[in-house]
Amino acid sequence: MNHANSKSLFDAAQKVIPGGVNSPVRAFRSVGGNPLFFKGGEGAYLIDADDNRYIDYVGAWGPLILGHGNPLVVDALRNQLEQGIGYGASTEAEIRLASKIIELVPSIEKVRLTTSGTEATMSAIRVARGYTRRDEIVKFEGCYHGHADGLLVKAGSGALTLGEPDSLGVPKAYTDLTHVLPYNDSEAVESFFAKQGDKIACIIVEPVAGNMNLVPPAPGFLETLRSVCDKHGTVLIFDEVMSGFRVASGGAQAVYGITPDMTCLGKVIGGGLPVGAFGGRKEIMDMIAPLGGVYQAGTLSGSPLAVAAGICMLEAVSQPGFYETLGQRAAQLMAGLRERAATAGIPFTTNQVGGMFGCFFSEEEQVSNFAQVTACNAERFQNYFHAMLDGGVYLAPSAFEAGFISMAHGDEEIRITLDAAEQAFNSLAQ
Ligand SMILES: *Cc1c(COP(=O)(O)O)cnc(C)c1O
């Protein structure tokens, strides 16, 4: 495959953009080689700067659950464009989007829009602190909640990929209030809360962890979080920026039947435009300015374009059978990959929840914690990544990212992917 144009664009980008990228994982550092530059997307496919076509399992890191250039989303955006790009004031469409979010995620009684997932989690934590009048918070190892200072402790995703779990430039005083516990370890949570639960403003957690590859919650883990929060007056925040409208129309909280006090959203609700949201119980959300004393704002919050795309996405995903179909396709893909890896004699396992999946070069039967994720064979992943790319399949360029399937991925795309995987596994076995 020829990548000459991507290569020269990367050379040019490195002169004017740090590392040539606007977000670190895009740089291919953990898989080696040069990153690809893209110029188009159509349904399940991405087209790079050299006109190569790939089946896309990144989906803009999750939002494109309908595939690239879905006509419903494009029309909604075009209609809004003709009415104006932004007003910096309220619109009727914001009420429609908020109402739709509340209808689909009943734990949310009121919701506010932001421009990114990072702002959603940062704001939700501020509100939880204001509500409880407490300062300390709990997060989990390998969970990523955006790049706010106090959350860059043992964060997953890019921070993990680069082997720098903590960032330079974050004063120690900012993270002193953040306690980090192991994901899926209910006993650790219980003993921590028994000692200092009354000081904790909130627990923030990815109810399906999607930034250390994909790790579903262990049985009882989310129940434990709910019960310690109830006991100690701590706010339970589900960061569903990734899992919301990705694993079910009601998010991971609907799949596992646990009701958080607050929820953060992003990715799918913007359909690929910059958006985030946080919401929850009315008495907590009413702490926010102008009603209460917790300040939170945004010039572009509720951008009419993002809202138009969001309404369109939520209408599409709330059609009956949407997540059954998406989940079946993901399951079919995972079963096919496991079968082909086994035939080639490569130790390999998968996780899947709805339209999200994780692939692991691991001897474990099931990967269910951070230690098992980091113990996976990184060199095999690198080789697999490049073999799949050569076979016309674009995976996230890091072993710590979840994979995403869309409704545009049909039997034909799955067949092509499995053919490429068969060759890739065979080349690993040699
Ligand atoms: C992507 C992500 C974020 C950050 O969202 P941005 O829009 O990148 O700021 C936060 N939490 C989770 C779980 C995410 O997957």
Biggest beta-sheet profile: 7 strands, mixed
Query: Which distinct ligands sit in these coordinates?
Result: pyridoxal-5'-phosphate
Principal-axis shape equals: globular
Radius of gyration: 21 Å
Percentage of helical residues?
Answer: 25-40%
What is the number of domains? 2
Q: With helices defined by DSSP (H or I, 4 residues minimum), what is the helix count?
A: 15
Topology of this structure?
Blueprint: H1 4-16, E1 38-42, E2 45-48, E3 53-56, H2 71-83, H3 92-104, E4 110-114, H4 117-132, E5 136-140, H5 157-161, H6 172-175, E6 178-181, H7 186-196, E7 200-205, H8 221-232, E8 235-239, H9 252-256, E9 262-266, E10 276-280, H10 282-285, H11 304-317, H12 322-344, E11 349-353, E12 356-360, H13 370-374, H14 378-390, E13 393-394, E14 403-404, H15 411-429
Parallel strand pairs: 3-13, 5-6, 5-7, 7-8, 8-9
Antiparallel strand pairs: 1-2, 2-3, 4-10, 9-10, 11-12, 12-14
Helix pairs in contact: 2-11, 3-11, 7-8, 12-15, 14-15
The protein binds pyridoxal-5'-phosphate (PLP).
Structure description:
With 430 residues, this protein is of the alpha/beta class. The chain folds into 2 domains: 4-69 and 321-429, Aspartate Aminotransferase, domain 1, CATH 3.90.1150.10; 71-317, Type I PLP-dependent aspartate aminotransferase-like (Major domain) (Aspartate Aminotransferase, domain 2). Helix content is 40%, strand content 14%. The chain is built from 15 helices and 14 strands. The chain has helices at 4-16, 71-83, 92-104, 117-132, 157-161, 172-175, 186-196, 221-232, 252-256, 282-285, 304-317, 322-344, 370-374, 378-390, 411-429, and strands spanning 38-42, 45-48, 53-56, 110-114, 136-140, 178-181, 200-205, 235-239, 262-266, 276-280, 349-353, 356-360, 393-394, 403-404. The chain has a 7-stranded mixed sheet with strand order 4-10-9-8-7-5-6, with helices on both faces. Strands 1-2-3-13 form a 4-stranded mixed sheet. β11 and β12 (356-360) form a beta hairpin. α3 packs parallel to α11. The protein is globular and about 60 Å long. The two termini are 22 Å apart. The model has no long low-confidence stretch (mean pLDDT 95). Bound molecules: pyridoxal-5'-phosphate. Pyridoxal-5'-phosphate is lined by residues 116-118, 121, 144-146, 206, 210-211, 239, 241-242, 266, 276. The site of pyridoxal-5'-phosphate has 15 residues, from α4.
